[in-house]
Specification:
The complex is a heterodimer.
Chain A (H helix, E strand, L loop, with lengths): L21 H10 L4 H19 L2 E4 L1 H16 L11 E5 L26 H8 L3 E6 L33 H8 L5 E6 L5 H7 L2 E4 L19 E6 L2 H11 L29 E5 L12 H16 L3 E5 L3 H20 L17 H12 L2 H13 L6 H21 L5 E5 L14 H6 L5 H6 L3 E8 L5 E7 L5 H19 L1
Parallel strand pairs in A: 2-3, 2-4, 7-8, 7-9
Antiparallel strand pairs in A: 1-3, 4-6, 5-6, 5-10, 9-11, 10-11
Chain B lengths: L18 E12 L38 H13 L3 E2 L4 E5 L9 E5 L5 E7 L5 E11 L3 E5 L10 E5 L6 E7 L6 H17 L12 E11 L9 E6 L2 H20 L7 E6 L4 E7 L9 E2 L10 H10 L4 H10 L4 H9 L3 H9 L4 H11 L10 H12 L5 H14 L3 H8 L6 H14 L1 H9 L2 H19 L5 H16 L1
Parallel strand pairs in B: 11-12
Antiparallel strand pairs in B: 1-9, 1-10, 2-5, 3-4, 3-14, 5-6, 6-9, 7-8, 10-11, 12-13
Helix pairs in contact in B: 2-3, 5-6, 5-7, 6-8, 7-8, 7-9, 9-10, 12-14, 12-15, 13-14, 14-15
Chain lengths: 497, 490
């Protein structure tokens, strides 16, 4: 059985007893029955107690958080409403820019750099009354599925410190799972929110591309990156997403229309919804799906059926090809996005006899092996003579995939599959890059199509490690997606009790 | 002359017999927007280093570009003025490492440019094809502090990003130009168009207009396109002509020696008067273009394009044509438009003034400064007085200067100065008197050839002017002298 990280009193960090949800916290702070400062201090104490073992945080913003909390409390005292996230603690993946606070992307190359501006999501969280507690660890520049690629050392899974928390947003997932913060933000390029959410037993959402502004998110692959929440409950995830979603003029790919409301419809159930199990993403024809994970998927399908949904199996053949297309497109965009880290303007610089040599030396010293691998892959994919065979073909696969999913959604409202083929694995278990990349097979299609997806905890494997079920929806189909997620959450809770 | 000699002047007619030049130009012009192409930072020339900057144009991590709608509008104006098709366009990234470039890629347009397939008719009549006119962002500027001033062995470099991200239009001509003069005429006309439509200030000296020339040669009568070289670092129209001529001669001498040029980028060395090899295309970087995923395609609606078209001011060619249609000489009309005084000229002509006299004043006698104070009606009155013989050309010039300075009507000024044209009989009597009083000079005038006569003619005119205190009409005096000459030598 699992052996979770414990607090000094022996309580496992993964035990939820005594931890308030974001919805309850905000209600209490708004009503004046609790204070933002109290809530924050409890979390800071918990970080102090447990983060040495977990390494979820790169940087704890204690002073700034205390000032934020005091401002929320002052607002309540003055009779003003601080907003729907009043006093709720939020951790930020360390690739989200925070003015005056180091933003490292867990890379040496950004050593010493402090952004002069806040990301749009940071502004919106603060406007909603949230208290930002710190910056969380990630695979360097969000490239990885385990946080083993962080230049500052890996984050440990709260359920078993010998295992990875998933990645790349492993720090955010672990921080929420261990109750070091109520909620957190991550970024998801190929599953980087959903997979760690599944491996750490929390809710994780990759919204529709363009629903949340990317301004202030340090880019990995611009056409795939999307910011989303980690939360202990589906309702909490909905509240956070409502707070950060919506058009932003500073992001040209931001959808120019109001974001759909989520919380109001959350309890409406799944009666009559047509939900498909994607056969290609449920072990049909692909090895590596753990039997316990597939067993939970089928229990989830049964639970949805019992709740009134119509479940069927559906084939989406291109879904599997997504993996190859993704590992051309994402590195291609990354090779260009990461060119600016050249030692000229900020971050790490290695002196050399001339500018070109200085750039090469700085990049050689500043980037880790996985980042270098992807920059090289991407540079190759975009090179004259190879463009059409690699980047061009990958884009054509993406187009086919978008069409195929659109067709499937003519007959289905939602699709489900496991979030990850396996539960949290041990450090070093997937040292071969290809094995690691295969871990993303279920999450990548939503990034390529731009469609939303959510991972909901649904039981555990035989050893007690969390399993996540992914619910996918068509573009801007978040409302139905959250309803199904809430139904699964309810069914999972019923199974436990 | 060998190909490595420096040509004496840029207007040298050029190549050995049997060869012709094939020239295409790439003109970069900075657009006159208030802010940069993708960033809210001001688009302003000069300023302390790194003061006209913003996180977006510094390419700081996490920032995203947003297209400046004004830049699109100005670029569409340019496209329409160059008779291009304005179409849906896609921004692409051009990837290469350079310290001037904050993101180490430049946002440009590659496969789908905003403006394509246009043409520009030169004042001399040639029609030059425009392949495309696309939008991109400018780079910053490096200053290399070290012995040679070259980047490769500089002690250190300073970078100023004030210019980084300034909107640029790149106007690519087809290889339709045939002489250095034509190339200069093309740039001059293009600059005039850009300024007229308010798209750019067109200042070559401040670098807001930059020209690269693609040059090759071929035997006259051939239609082939031979290997071309791209010449950079051309900083004035004069240099452009010199550089093209130098390069074309270099190509001819290579072909005549049984060799051939290699396709490469060459830099114009103004002091040495020659081009020098830069990077060859074989070593050239692979720019790995791909559509910029941070931006969405720009698809200007037909309504917007029509609106922009309707608001375009008359182009230089249309303004020249308007003057010529009303009787102005072609060359003078071009000067009037070039001096931006064609509006005044046109109004004066419409008010009944003689077109040729109007153009003479506008092209030669009227200072651009202050000319806006001149009322077209007063100007037309002046020309009428002059053609009616009430004022001589010299007097008219003086009155004009006073009109600009004071804004008063010409009749008042002429009366105050006591100007009145001499009666023609009176003038003839005066001229005959002076001729008779200087018999030796007159004899030599009659005996001389056309060349030696000039000096003596000046003598007689001078005497007449002296006698009339400058009020005689020089042209009339000359006519009287010639008439007398004809009589005396008959």
């Amino acid at each position: 059985m699992t052996d979770p990280v414990t607090l000094p009193d022996g309580t496992p960090v993964t035990a939820r007893a005594g931890l308030a949800s974001a919805v309850d916290t905000a209600a209490a702070v708004r009503a004046g029955t609790s204070s933002a400062t109290e809530v924050l201090e409890a979390h800071l104490a918990r970080i102090e107690a447990a983060d040495g073992a977990l390494h979820a945080f790169n940087h704890v913003m204690a002073d700034r958080a205390r000032a934020d909390a005091a401002a929320v409390d002052a607002a309540v005292a003055a009779g003003r409403d601080p907003g729907p996230l009043a006093g709720v603690t939020v951790a930020l993946k360390d690739n989200l820019c925070t003015r005056g606070v180091p933003t490292t992307c867990s890379s040496r190359i950004l050593e010493g750099w402090t952004p002069p501006y806040d990301a749009t999501v940071v502004e919106r969280l603060r406007a909603a009354g949230a208290v930002l507690v710190g910056k969380t660890n990630l695979d360097e520049f969000a490239m990885g599925s385990s946080t083993e690629n962080s230049a500052f050392g890996p984050t440990r899974n709260p359920w078993d410190p010998a295992r990875v928390p998933g990645g790349s947003s492993g720090g955010s997932a672990a921080a929420v799972a261990a109750g070091l913060t109520t909620v957190a933000l991550g970024s998801d390029t190929g599953g980087s929110i959903r997979q760690p959410a599944a491996l750490c037993g929390v809710v994780g959402v990759k919204p529709t591309y363009g629903l949340v502004s990317r301004y202030g998110l340090v880019a990995f692959a611009s056409s795939l990156d999307q910011i989303g929440p980690f939360a202990p409950t589906v309702a909490d995830a909905a509240v956070v997403l409502e707070a950060i979603a919506g058009h932003d003029r500073r992001d040209s790919t931001s959808i120019p229309q109001p974001a759909p409301g989520l919380t109001a419809q959350l309890g409406e159930g799944v009666e009559g919804l047509r939900i498909g199990i994607v056969s290609e993403l449920s072990g049909q024809g692909i090895d590596g799906f753990e039997p316990d994970v597939l067993a939970r998927l089928h229990e989830a399908a049964d639970a949805l059926t019992s709740a009134g949904a119509k479940i069927d199996t559906v084939s989406v053949p291109s879904a599997v090809a997504g993996l190859s297309a993704y590992y051309m497109i994402a590195p291609a965009e990354a090779s260009s996005n990461l060119a600016r880290y050249d030692g000229v303007r900020y971050g790490l610089r290695r002196e050399a006899p001339n500018t070109a040599a200085m750039m090469a030396a700085s990049r050689t010293a500043g980037f880790g092996p996985e980042v270098k691998r992807r920059i090289m892959l991407g540079t190759y994919a975009l090179s004259a003579g190879y463009w059409d065979a690699f980047y061009g073909r990958a884009q054509r696969i993406r187009t086919v995939m978008i069409a195929e999913f659109a067709k499937v959604y003519e007959n289905f409202d939602l699709l489900i599959c496991p979030t990850s083929p396996c539960v949290a694995f041990e450090f070093g278990a997937k040292a071969d890059p290809l094995t690691m990349y295969l871990n993303d097979v279920c999450t990548i299609p939503s990034n390529l199509t731009g469609q939303p997806a959510i991972s909901v905890p649904f039981g555990t494997d035989a050893t007690g490690l969390p399993v996540g079920i992914q619910v996918m929806a068509p573009l801007l189909g978040e409302a139905a997606m959250f309803r199904a997620a809430a139904a699964l959450e309810q069914a999972a809770a019923g199974k436990e009790s | 002359m060998t190909a490595t000699d420096t040509p004496d002047t840029a207007t040298d007619t050029g190549l050995p017999a049997g060869w012709e030049m094939v020239i295409g130009l790439e003109v970069h012009a900075e657009l006159a927007t208030a802010t940069k192409m993708f960033s809210p930072a001001p688009n302003r020339f000069g300023g302390d280093p790194n003061t006209n900057v913003h996180p977006v144009c510094l390419g700081l991590p996490g920032t995203l570009p947003v297209v400046n709608a004004k830049a699109i509008e100005l670029a569409i104006r340019i496209g329409l003025a160059l008779n291009c098709t304005v179409q849906r366009c896609v921004f692409a990234r051009k990837n290469y490492f350079y310290p001037d470039m904050p993101k180490d890629y430049q946002i440009s347009q590659y496969e789908e440019a905003l403006n394509v397939d246009g043409h520009l008719e030169l004042p001399s009549g040639a029609v030059i094809g425009i392949e495309r006119a696309h939008l991109e962002e400018d780079t910053g500027k490096s200053t290399h502090m070290g012995a040679s001033g070259r980047i490769h062995d500089a002690g250190y470099s300073l970078v100023d990003y004030n210019r980084a991200g300034v909107p640029l239009i790149e106007i690519v001509s087809r290889p339709d130009l045939r002489t250095p003069d034509q190339a200069r005429e093309y740039v001059d006309e293009l600059r005039s168009i850009l300024v007229t439509i308010g798209a750019s200030d067109g200042k070559m000296e401040e670098g807001s207009l930059r020209v690269d020339a693609n040059v090759s040669v071929r035997p006259v009568g051939s239609t082939e396109l031979r290997t071309r070289c791209e010449i950079k670092n051309v900083n004035s129209l004069r240099s452009l002509g010199r550089a093209i001529l130098y390069e074309a001669r270099r190509h001819v001498s290579l072909y005549e020696a049984g060799e051939r040029p290699i396709q490469e980028t060459r830099h114009w060395d103004e002091e040495a008067g020659r081009t020098r090899s830069g990077r060859s295309k074989e070593e050239a970087e692979d720019y790995r273009y791909f559509p910029d995923p941070d931006l969405v395609p720009v698809d200007p609606s037909p309504e917007w394009v029509d609106e922009i078209r309707a608001a375009l001011p008359p182009l230089p060619s249309q303004r020249r044509a308007a003057l010529v249609e009303r009787g102005a000489p072609t060359a003078g009309a071009a000067i009037a438009v070039g001096r931006d005084l064609d509006g005044l000229a046109l109004a004066a002509i419409e008010a009944g003034a003689d077109a040729e006299r109007v153009i003479t004043h506008v092209a030669n006698n009227l200072a651009i400064e202050g000319a806006e104070h001149l009322s077209p009606a007063h100007f037309a009155d002046l020309i009428r007085m002059e053609t009616a013989g009430e004022l001589t050309a010299t007097q008219a010039k003086q009155v004009l200067a006073d009109m600009v300075a004071t804004g008063r009507p010409p009749a008042d000024i002429a009366a105050e100065k006591g100007f009145q044209a001499m009666d023609s009989n009176e003038l003839e009597t005066l001229v005959n008197g002076i001729v008779d009083a200087n018999p030796d000079e007159w004899a030599r005038f009659c005996a001389g050839d056309d060349k030696s006569r000039g000096k003596l003619q000046g003598f007689f005119t001078g005497q007449v002017m002296k006698a009339t205190k400058g009020q005689a009409d020089g042209k009339a005096v000359n006519a009287l002298l010639m008439a007398r000459l004809a009589r005396d030598t008959a």
